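If you are new to this repository, start here. Below is one unmodified record pulled from the training split, so you can see the exact layout before writing a loader.
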Amino acid sequence: MLVLRRELDRAGVPWTQRPVHTDDLASFEGAFVSNSQGVAAVSAIDDTRYPADTELVRTVRSLYQAAAWDEI
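And here is the target side for that same chain:
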């Protein structure tokens, strides 16, 4: 998540970290999960459905894929 936060900041994409409750789910346009392997769209959480290809998911995927690798 640190890589994604850094890239969102560089691109000027606002983000926030806060708890999300089931009552909040309908207010979101989409959802995604991320880990060291990449980003994946979430199509549903319980009974709340999301489109798989939202602008946010496309942006996050693009930023994540373009992130520079850390030298080890």
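Two things worth knowing about this chain: The first helix runs from residue 2 to 11. The longest strand covers residues 32-35.
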